[in-house]
Amino acid sequence: MTKAVTNAPFLSGQLLLSMPGMGDARFERVVIAMCLHDNEGALGLIVNQPLPDLTLRDLMMQLDIDPGVTPIDAPVMLGGPVEPGRGFVLHSPDYEGQSTILVSGGGAPAGSGSAGPAWALTATQDVLKDIAAGKGPRRWLATLGYTGWSAGQLDGEMTRHGWLAAPGDPELVFAAPVSERWARAYGQLGIAVGQLSATAGRA
Questions:
Q1: d(Cα 42, Cα 153) in Å, to the nearest integer?
Q2: Which of 112, 166, 168, 187 has a CA between 20 and 30 Å from the CA of residue 104?
Q3: What is the mean pLDDT of residues 71-82?
Q4: Helix or strand or coil: residue 19?
Q5: How far is CA 170 from CA 71, 108, 145, 188, in A?
């Protein structure tokens, strides 16, 4: 059964951007697509850290899945430092598998009721098989690992220097060049990352 996420006071469906000088090398210049955030904790996937020397076709063959029509150059992202051997597919909400979670929000005003799902998340191999067969979601991004926070942890981190929330933008997540996603996300907020980096560097 598909689970729809309601997230009015939380960050599900939004982007989480690391700020220069946050002090954790694992999250240097990352863009995280937030998938779950509630009173029990939060989960997101980094969408701009491709794993070197690993394509989605490689991963499929390791899982004994025929890659079929999967693009040769489709990357696999490091979704985060937690459970780096566990796979996830972040994708457009036009596809729903047995374990798919639809992530609503995307930064629309809380309570507006007008925002559809920003993206969706599936963590089972059926989505990989459907991608290989040409029956998968229109847009998708494969990751290994995830970024997680315990209850109240992310809420506390948001009050300190380190993270900045931005509206969810599927175009940026699925279509923008990987190397440009962090700077573009800041640019959509009207922030020039060059100036931001310089300011943080003098602190």
A1: 8
A2: 187
A3: 96
A4: coil
A5: 20, 13, 20, 13
